[in-house]
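Render RAE2 geranylgeranyltransferase in 3D.
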Amino acid sequence: RNYYGGNWASFSFSGLLSWIKENKQKTDTNDECEDWRKLILENEGVISLSKKDKTIQYVEDFCFGDQDSAEDVEEAGALPKLPALGASAAQGAAQDSEKERPPAEGALLGAGSLEPGEAGGTEPASTTEGNETHVTSENDSSQNAAFGESSLELGRTEAAPSEVSAQEPKKVTYCQIVREGRRFNIDLVSKLLYSRGLLIDLLIKSNVSRYAEFKNATRILAFREGKVEQVPCSRADVFNSRQLSMVEKRMLMKFLTFCLDYEQHPDEYQDYENSTFAQFLSTRKLTPSLQHFVLHSIAMVSETDCTTLEGLHATKKFLQCLGRYGNTPFLFPLYGQGEIPQCFCRLCAVFGGIYCLRHPVQCLVVDKESGRCKAIVDHFGQRISANYFIVEDSYLSESVCTNVCYRQISRAVLITDRSVLNTDSEQQVSILTVPPVDVGKPAVCVIELCSSTMTCMKDTYLVHLTCPSTKTAREDLEPVVQKLFNLNTEKETENEELEKPRVLWAVYFNMRDSSGVNRNSYIGLPSNVYVCSGPDPALGNDCAVKQAETIFREMFPTEDFCPPPPNPEDIIYDEDEMTPEETGFSNSPEIPPESSSEESSSKGTTAVEKEDNEK
């Protein structure tokens, strides 16, 4: 790939259009060159890798405006290709951090150059002026001692009251979206970070949090009786709510207090352990509206499949995350979820790691006697040796995955002209769970992002919809889109439709979910080859963190996982003493200049260190 993060990536608008075009093309890339086979010895075998990513299916995109008028429009402020990291790496990385560049433009995060409009890098969030505040765990006094000085950079959630919230939204054309395409950072996978989740703890522990900036999710929404309404979460929200009666407020607070320490009161729920959480709620003297809020907006679990214990655990997790960084349990990384893998790439680069873009791999080389993997052979006929190999599931060929049964995730991304729930402030980050439209259908998670998240242009919203697949993404999600948004492109529209936000552009696609695949399902993999999955459908990131730590501990059982790093200025490199054997590269044909890989050398590291010191 020519971008970071695989299916965790973020794209500019033009970059996403290129990604869509690439995934609509079903032709495999056949490599007729077999010179690499000369590098395989007699006592060695090979495990061929997949030539094409098949994790994305049923891609459909729609423009609800005049698309023809935008044919000759280009993104504003397009920049020439950035220099590859090498002799001029320090200069290139330093230029990348300058304030003159558009705030959503790519940054070198420990590796090479990106074409304008490609996915991947975005400007380090901490370089944004006037939009950051230092938040520590002191916001939650009850947890202050446990978290000490841990901190994250959060973007301000305050916003000036909207002067046009009651008026008709400004008309945004497709031409403007294309022209301002670099203002978009569109995630392939839609997630939020629980403020007490495993990823936040890891970001703080490893100090990777210094490479990113976050914004609070400002509100939790519910869809009930055809309307979108805000859900009171915290104690203050409950008692300030006008939509709940005083009796309902007492009911809700009593139930939420019970959920915080439900383990201490097993007599309250043990008779319902084999029942669904929805059935349990119906016995708790909660009104139908409170049951709906708890089930779909607080626990955010399935009405039919979630057990009582699972629902109580989910509710407790939600409540424990309140108050650490804001009035909701969630944070969102500025410039998109795709920033997170790039932040870890940057830390890796500081300690000499190399991240290669546009560098296909042909096969794994296996020793026939020991059965262990010895090396890989890349597209350029270069053999690279190592002791351990970590392979993302999509690289494995069909012969290895014969016994694997994959699930699918249905995804939709919309660009809209206004929020699903207008308030005095336009700068809202909202999460909404829409209950199943029909029996047997899953609930749909909707995340709506405003322009201050640096994921879309001004006067637009970026909306992500996600659910486990039952059919194609469009079949799964379009009924929900029709309930919440206006898809009518004609001028004459009913009043009911006029009240809804208008969709300007949309894309649907199905993404493979390999998170539940057991390693034993893969055929013929050596013991030192570890498989990691793509994104899972859950709202948080716990699955990815657990998987990374599990693989790490299998390889290095005595080492600490992501320990706090030393200061970059304390690291001493002596590159002259490194031999070819130590680097793992053998004497093989040079990589053609036109296909050179991106390497984060120690010179590039100097630029990163310089930028960190300036911060």
